[in-house]
User: What shape does this take?
Amino acid sequence: MVTTARKTLYGLMVSKVIKLSMMGNDQIKTIGISSIFGEELVNPNMTRLDLNNLEKQLLQWKKKYGNVITIWIPDPQIVVGDAEAMKEFIKHSEAYAGRPTLNVMKLILGGNYGLVFNDDSFWKSQRRFAIHVLKDFGFGKPVLEETIIDQANQMIKFLGELNGKPIDMKKILNTAIGNVIHQLTFGWTVPLDSDYIMDFHIKMIEVTAFFVHPMGLLCEIWDGFRILDPLFNRVMKKALDKNDAIVENMKKEIKKHRETIDYNSDPKDYIDAFLIEQRRQKAEDKLDGEWSDKQLIAAIYDLFSAGMETTASSTRAFILYMINYPEAQKKIHEEIDREIGRDRNITMSDQVKLPYLQACIQELQRIAVLLVVNAQHRTTEDVIIDGYRLPKGTTIIPQFQSVHLDEDHFCDPERFDPTRHLDKENRFSKNDKVTPFSLGKRSCLGES
Assistant: This one.
């Protein structure tokens, strides 16, 4: 069976090489991946991807081969690693606003639903809706800011009661930050010592890990490869079982909201807002499509996966850098004491008063690697980038880590240095080369 699978995989990938050459891409340096089964498939001299240090490997390849290369994960992906070339994602944003159709999304969510990889036919309206909800109900509004402050104060109290005892910050941070998303989405929170959100987080990580697991990559090449799951210790079945548990929990929350919602009042949370719009669109009984429950479930998935994990990981990284750079930590304390004092909580309106803290946050967003490879885009028309012609339907990745960690843009790039982001008057200066939320019309909703 394995030999047959290798031959089939070989044939599929060779056909993609031929197709890639026919597209006019043959001048771009192509870097291959090693076989999922341990041997080279298309070219015996192809370079293996180092999944443990892929962001650094892509930077090295940029230096060696040029600003635009092709890698296989498992389909051909055009990787752009140059700040100037990435401006095309903004200048011609519509042309780079597509997303690839993923077989794994069909397995997990029944299709390209959600807010990240949602279908090209309705991504714009769903993005507008999500931004409307986040702005008019969530971000910048008292109810969410109050939740953030409350969770921060609970963490301070919890840590103070430890009296210096060492602690793994992962659970408490994930719970506190998850509570903010939970409040926004479901309308309620859990105690910091609860396992509820951490259990949800663990399940979600195991499901999303399947996207880059060899079995998941095989399914992207051909859905029929799912028959090989027993050879991979049934990793697909385990991921789908975890996914079913997550989806079932979301369905229960949606059911509760349907039983208590007042369609004539303002929404209490994201689910309420969606259900109100779903009724307005006369889509309550639709099993598929833009305003179906599938879209709501996938949107909730994305709010948690994109909002909770990245924020929690960033916060843990920030704590680590503050421990290793005590002089920066001292300056932050001095700035807060001077500008805010110790008698009240910091709010979003205080942001402009804290330029050094803003500089530290931007430096963290530059130096921290949360995703080794950024989210894929798909060209919606023929484009030219860095002199290369790419046809409509090409999968392309703006790899901003190849800018963030490049000494040509940032001197001594692996050193944490907030002063990079301060002008001569020590005012915060936003650097357009630091793009942690990605670029173009598909940039992260969190930036909005």
Summary: The first helix runs from residue 2 to 22. The first strand starts at residue 29 and ends at 31. Residues 1-7, 9-26, 32-46 have pLDDT under 50 and may be disordered.
